[in-house]
Amino acid sequence: MASKADLRAEAQRLMAFFEAAGATPVEADILQPADTLLDLYGEDIRARAYVTSDPLRGEQMLRPDFTVPVVQMHMAEGAEPARYTYAGEVFRRQEEDTERSNEYFQVGYEVFDRENPAAADAEVFAMFDSVLSPLNLRAATGDIGILMAAVRGLLTTERRKEALLRHIWRPRRFRALLDRFGGRSKLPAARIKILKRLEDNSIEQLIEDDGPLIGLRSSVEIAERLNTLKDDATVEPIGAGEVEVLDHILSLRETAPNALENLRDIAVDMPSISDAVRKMDQRLEAMAVRGINVETLDFEASHGRTTLEYYDGFVFSFSAVGRPDLPPIAMGGRYDALTKVLGKGRSIPAVGGVIRPELVLGLEGTQE
């Protein structure tokens, strides 16, 4: 295992590569306000982050990554266009996998540029491809924007589409919702029981019968939730044809050019993805200009669905061939919507990624 000194030296080497390309080095506080992250990700973030309480500052989190504080910094005071690089520790709880570290280094490169998003995507990917090239890693790409566009185009209620969009980053939950909304699975027994009780009782009576309130929800919030359940029970299932098309997109794994042709065909039946497919085409052209061999580049439509929830377009990762025990050596993607949330209405197209220097050092050691 590499020492902290070795990790810092490797991190500085990687940062120097990005600085040579025009990136400005920046830093971020180790303690981050918890309310910002909770607003972004909901209570789920507590399962992945270390939370502490400060008597003056309130709840704080050991930074789970750099992207959020870097975006906040840029939206508050950054010039345009901008390129940043950074390095330091991040902290993630690993309750389900004790083999993985809960504290590790990240080195990142972020681009904020509204002129040509496709070119920025290609720039970031090419930078990571170049600095990691001695390791002979497998590159994989995807596009969360295509999945989001497909969901938004479904012929169903806005509430159901919002639920699916909220769980795109939780594949099992997304699948369960899609199967339920598509009529392919039964309602949970508890849901059926509640709906049955609502047939014979008013919402007010049901709340009263269940006794004193326990938990954080008020009676008004409970009533709103019960009304939502009643309304949703009357909605027709999503059409089988639409569910099949979405299934096909989710399972798509091909070389990038073949995936593009496949998605163009799908767009005939699901025109809501047309703009996202056009952006993918532009990105591949920009990558080719940067010297990336897109003919053999892997594309997986579901790629990136288990990372933090701010990616909303192009996503990528670099992994060690024959080492399924290792997490990605590097990963990143586009997060335009995050800049709007943290910019309080202002936004700018943004894309970036991170490298784990301890994994780079480990793989370099195996190739000596």
Question: What is the total tally of β strands?
Answer: 12
Proportion in helices: 40-55%
List low-pLDDT spans. Answer: none
Outline: globular
Strand content: 15-25%
Pfam families: tRNA-synt_His
Organism: Pseudohalocynthiibacter aestuariivivens
InterPro entries: aa-tRNA-synth_II/BPL/LPL, HisRS-like_core, HisRS/HisZ
Domain Class II Histidinyl-tRNA synthetase (HisRS)-like catalytic core: 9-200, 239-355
Verbal overview:
One of its GO terms (molecular function) is glycosyltransferase activity. InterPro entries: aa-tRNA-synth_II/BPL/LPL, HisRS-like_core, HisRS/HisZ. Residues 9-200, 239-355 form the Class II Histidinyl-tRNA synthetase (HisRS)-like catalytic core domain. It contains 15 helices and 12 strands. The chain is of the alpha+beta class and 368 residues long. The strands form 2 sheets. The chain has a 9-stranded mixed beta sheet, sandwiched between helices. Strands 2-4-3 form a 3-stranded antiparallel beta sheet. It has a domain at 159-238.
What tags apply to this protein structure?
368 residues; alpha+beta; 9-stranded mixed β-sheet; 15 helices; 47% helix; 17% strand; ATP phosphoribosyltransferase regulatory subunit; glycosyltransferase; glycosyltransferase activity; transferase; HisRS/HisZ
What would a concise description of this structure say?
Keywords: Glycosyltransferase, Transferase. The protein contains 15 helices and 12 strands. With 368 residues, it is of the alpha+beta class.
Strand and helix map with partners:
Blueprint: H1 4-20, E1 24-25, E2 31-33, H2 34-41, E3 51-54, E4 58-62, H3 67-77, E5 82-91, E6 103-112, H4 117-131, E7 138-143, H5 144-152, H6 158-166, H7 171-181, H8 189-200, H9 203-209, H10 219-233, H11 240-250, E8 253-255, H12 256-269, H13 274-289, E9 298-300, E10 314-319, E11 330-334, H14 336-342, E12 350-355, H15 357-366
Parallel strand pairs: 1-5, 7-9
Antiparallel strand pairs: 2-4, 3-4, 5-6, 6-12, 7-10, 8-9, 10-11, 11-12
